Amino acid sequence: MGAIVEFEHVTFRYPEESRDILCDICLSIEKGSFTAVLGHNGSGKSTLAKHMNGILLPTQGKVFVAGLCTADEDRILEIRHTVGMVFQNPDNQIVANVVEEDVAFAPENLGVPSEEIRQRVDDALRLVDMYEYRRHAPHLLSGGQKQRVAIAGVLAMQPELIVLDEPTAMLDPKGRAEVISTVQRLCRENGMTVVLITHHMDECIDADRLIVMSNGRIAADGSPAEVFSHVKEMEDEGLDVPETVRIVRDLNDCGFVLPTDLLHTEECADAIAAAVLQRRAAWQS
Ligand SMILES: Nc1ncnc2c1ncn2[C@@H]1O[C@H](COP(=O)(O)OP(=O)(O)OP(=O)(O)O)[C@@H](O)[C@H]1O
Ligand SMILES: [Mg+2]
After folding, report:
1. How many whole angstroms from 45 Cα to the centroid of ligand 1?
2. Domains within the chain, CATH numbers bracketed
3. Is the pLDDT reported for residue 222 higher than 80?
4. What's the CA gap between 143 and 30, in Å, rounded?
5. Ligand 1 centroid vs 22 CA: distance in angstroms?
6. CA-proximal residue: ligand 1, atom 24 (nearest)
7. What is the pLDDT of residue 261?
8. 99: phi then psi, degrees, rounded to nearest 5
9. Which of 127, 148, 233, 267 sits 20 to 30 Å CA-CA off 24?
10. Cα radius of gyration (the chain)
11. Residue 220 CB–ligand 1 contact under 6 Å
């Protein structure tokens, strides 16, 4: 499908700081893919995200968005329209007193004709399953609903890539589930390219690709099953692995031979049940 974002040997240092926050990052994000980014606090995840639409520019190296260099000032608006960003706190991202006005805000500022705005707003609200709330006051919505309105506001810009920087960090479990299933649907059913930065392992397991950041470098990059199968390396990074991976590791340490790429609870439970039955049959024979 081709790349939507490319990092070429990107190093970044905040002005007046003495250390590099991103160190020689080479990275390419495929169109239509779902990439999750994990990493401990301060590992550079948000700094990486802010390079994806030119909020930050590399100290060394280059970032290209849809083939445009983010350092090219003449193309920065195009770049910002191509990559939409969603942040942690929905309250900081909502600007209007009515849901549909909030979603219309960015396209209005872009000078999109009003009939098209109406269509974009309705489409975006339907995509995040908030259409029936279009006349509601955002501040009365739940955290998960507010964050979905914030996502609709980004979708109304019709970006090619949506980067979400810990969008569920301030939400309760119900809100988290709503936001993650919305984001997954946008990618799987609507072809949106997604980069999801998160602290929650369970939000990564259905991604196409999982990148682990550590001290400004990419410490691991592969499918979630591949990355999580390196339990020890993940723990050395101070990161947890999904509970299923830990259970399989502990059972395998006790002599079971279970596959190490089981991430979903049900497939893990099925594999353990089959292994236990097999052992019992072996003892009985
Ligand atoms: N504006 C800034 N000026 C100077 N240093 C900064 C600035 N923003 C971030 N940093 C430093 O850069 C490092 C990486 O920060 P960044 O926000 O990218 O990490 P992160 O992985 O997103 O962390 P978290 O999980 O806490 O969100 C941290 O040490 C942070 O203190
Ligand atoms: Mg961050």
Report:
1. 8
2. 3-223 (3.40.50.300), 242-285 (no CATH)
3. yes
4. 30
5. 10
6. 41
7. 86
8. -50, -50
9. 233
10. 21
11. no
- SS3 for 5-31 is EEEEEEEECCCCCCCCCEEEEEEEEEC
Q: State how far the Cα of 219 lies from the Cα of 238, in Å rounded to an integer.
A: 12
State which of 11, 40, 46 you would mutate to test the pocket of ligand 1, scoring each by most atoms of that ligand within 8 A of its C-beta. 46
Pocket test for ligand 1, best of 41, 48, 213 (most atoms within 8 A of CB): 41
Which ranges of 90-199 would DSSP assign to H, the alpha helix? 99-109, 114-127, 143-155, 173-190
Helix (H) / strand (E) element for 4: namely strand 3-12
Does residue 240 register a pLDDT over 90? no
Structure tokens at 169: 């960090």
* Phi-psi sector, 227: left (phi>0), alpha (psi -120 to 50), beta: alpha
Q: Which two tokens stand for residue 107?
A: 């396209």
Contact, 224 vs 263, CB < 8 A?
Answer: yes
- The answer to pTM > 0.90 is yes
Question: What separation in Å is there between the alpha carbon of 48 and the centre of ligand 1?
Answer: 10
Q: Are 175 and 147 in contact (CB under 8 A)?
A: yes
